[in-house]
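re: that chain from earlier
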Amino acid sequence: MTDFLIYQGKAAIALAVFYMFYRLLLSKETFHRFNRIVLLGTAALSFVLPLCVITFKKVVVLPAMTTSSETVLGEVAGTAVTMVPEASEPIWPIILCIIFCIGALTVLANTVISIIGIRRIISSGSSQTLESGETLIITETDTAPFSWMKYIVISREDYESGYSQILTHEKAHIALRHSSDILFVDMITALQWFNPAIWMLKADLRALHEFEADDAVLRSGANIKEYQYLLIRKAVSKSGYSVANSFNHSTLKARITMMLNKKSSRMSAWKALYVIPLVGISLAATAETKVDYQYEGQQPEAVADTPDGKDNKNSFREKNLSEGRFIIDEEASSITMIYFDHNGNELRSQHKGMPLGQDEYYFHNGNMATPAAYEKYLKEEGAVTFTTYRSNGKKILGIVTPNNNYVTGVWDATKHPDEQE
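^ sequence. v structure.
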């Protein structure tokens, strides 16, 4: 749950940074299709980059350990865990996830409602198939022209008063698959509804759709002044559906200005290379260093070929070094050893009714051991050790070896062996 929230936070930062550079470098340029690709591509990349983690391996050579040494591997590596009761999971991630889900469902519900409304208009109007394959829907209501997927919707009044420029505009939306863009961005918006950058990106993408469609009308031979006047006349009505490509999209001033702008040079497209250093910075920020501990004179361990492609030996060592620990409950006189087997599975062994005022305790693979046995296990290949201290300063030492002889469950020192759970 917490990992998902962290992932969403990383995606939000990446999305905001990509969009900020787009606004600074590309938003004023006139190559609309290229800008559209950049917006959609960087939006998708924002969700992929947090999953790409480059791992570097580092080998730390430790002094050779002798059987009389008081230093254990967990202490040398700085991974020994002080014995504290297990803390319960904080409630804030649950609250944040609930808020996140409510926001995501709200966005998705708005999209679904919009699609349902469009389908109702399509089913209520009269239809005819155009030569180019689109379906023209003529409605009796005063509906602003719009398109969605393969459908073009116009009112009866527009149909009878001449609609060639409107038709060309909406055909461009369909040919360029703008409806698919909108649905894709709506899905991203559901995941990033809390991020202002996605809402601004969505608005810019809708504007690019209109710029592309307007450009298609002008390239068809339409008079620019007459077309601009048509846009102004239609600006008073609204389609009201968030997933539709409306002829009278609200960015009227920007559309007219863009028609009059000088075409950008091809060299301006090189500005899109800003994506490359940003990707590099993102990968560098999420890179990890994996430390492999090795004794002096010890040969590096060979990688074991396993069905799932994992290195079991490294997994065994790393899991026990980083997460192996004891939990002491002095009031209940219990010691719980948490460790991991050769496949990385967590195991627990609890010993109840222990006289915690005595000297050191030794544990091997979840079972109690004598000091001599502990010293013997230290010599085994792949042995991992960790230690902690009780409130009276006495040590509790644990050692784990990958030999399949693991002990789990509960042992009550106050009961006879035949009465154990």
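The first strand starts at residue 55 and ends at 62.
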